[in-house]
Amino acid sequence: MDSVFSHQAFAKELGGLPFDLIGDFERKMVTDYGVRRDDVAGYSGMARRSIFIVDRNGVIRWTWIGSREQPQPDYDLVIDEAKKVAAEA
User: Total domain count for the chain?
Assistant: First the structure.
């Protein structure tokens, strides 16, 4: 849901990324992917913290969606899963 400019700044801060980050101003993807928040006042339409690893064919290969029990992902696991998907391409 962040802007393209926000994504560019984030990628630059990380030294560049080998993939695109997607903006969702119209909140279509958060609805389609099932991560739209409508459970807390003030957050209606916002996305739950989530990660989708999508292969080159557009197939979702791995998903993580935040919860109260796990508000942040295991970033090492995310990188490992992304590398697996990239290696299969």
Answer: 2
